Amino acid sequence: MFQRILIANRGEIALRVIRACRDLGIEVVAVYSEADRGAPWLQLADEAICIGPAPATESYLNISRIIAAAEVADVEAIHPGYGFLSENPHFAEICRSCNIEFIGPPVDAMRKLGNKNEARRLAREAKVPIVPGSDLIGSDAEALRVAREIGYPVLIKAAAGGGGRGMRIARNDISLQAALKQARAEAESAFKDGSVYLEKYLEQPRHVEVQILGDQKGEVVHLWERDCSTQRRHQKLIEESPAPNLPPQVREEICRAAVRLAKTAGYYNAGTCEFLVDKQGNFYFIEVNARIQVEHPVTELVTGIDLVREQIRIAAGYPLSFTQRQVVHRGVAIECRINAEDPYRGFAPSPGVVTRWQPPGGPGVRLDSHVVQGYRVPPNYDSLIAKLLVWQPTREEALAVMRRALREFIVEGIKTTIPFHREILNQSAFIEGQVDTTFVERFWLGGEAGPRDSKPAVAKK
Ligand code: ADP
Asked: Ligand 1 mean position to 249 CA, how many Å?
């Protein structure tokens, strides 16, 4: 096993990895930008090294500075967390060529899956259904032909895409031309790769994803699914497992498809296969996230498996410590993402000093957060400040405990998504598990029932 690991990340995921290392008796080296100097999680590391100024490009995204820190601190492995360099195959390759293990998948699998178009090709090879669509689009004329073939509405997606960037809907020939131009420009500036392809735009699908784990010996297991349909502008806000109302046969098939795809890609370590599920229960692969996910604790709560610990063990060359049959899914887990954002002002970022921090607790509650009272949320990075999770034997009980925890949770000084979650958990569509990916747009962002005038449905007893 490794003796010393560097964490190339910040915030709650840095703290999560520190905890896993401590549990395994591994020393931890943290890195930080000037914006994070004195941050609370750094005190829990054995060593903390400043890697540069606040902008991520000069610190958390700066490969040479991170490698230099790893060399100086003499670590054997780097955990990239999520975001930043976690899905950068070039970084993984450099780590390994410096004899530092990258705690993640093989470079080759990262390269293939990092390109959505390539990933679709792999899915086809693994006999995993994909959304009807095209290969990379050359000319506008080709796009027009394909769009008419698959039928409007269509979604233009960047091959190198992520975080919803380079994604545009087109509902007819005229909007297609403008959307193509915008998608290409956005992809070019975000990923330095303007290549795009088309997908049929599915109306009101659900987002269901499967957690997989594979070891370096070729064994791959799934740890069941998470439903992440509660999204705003394609960004997840609530995740849960199991996916409510998903027919058992569809659930089994999706999980098996994810394992097939991972094996076809020669994948190891933790990863997530994302799917869209339509009203008829047909599922379609959309992409693989080749890293640990923000919402991984949902799976930890229903399986009892520590995913970050497993990631480290796998990177150190150990075989999986359990078989597929030993993965037992129990009860229901729900996660609410608490962001430093104002849900009443279009989720505008709300950085600043947290003047009061009173977190919830008690039976069935888990809070993953790097925040303490007096902490200043910097404006430079992702707005996630806490992940509030609950576990209960049934969904009804899980909803009740989540409502109670959200009530207990008091944050002052900055705006957060806590009031948003309090409302959503009283919406009948959510209570009944009938949410699709357009739910937040319809119920919160100026749809049928705005946040202020909505009449919360009476919660089921
Ligand atoms: P990104 O990597 O940029 O986050 P994804 O491909 O993972 O993009 O898609 C993000 C979200 O966009 C999905 O969860 C879903 O809500 C929506 N989406 C993606 N593809 C489609 C599609 N073909 N039809 C309808 N919605 C889609």
From this structure: 23
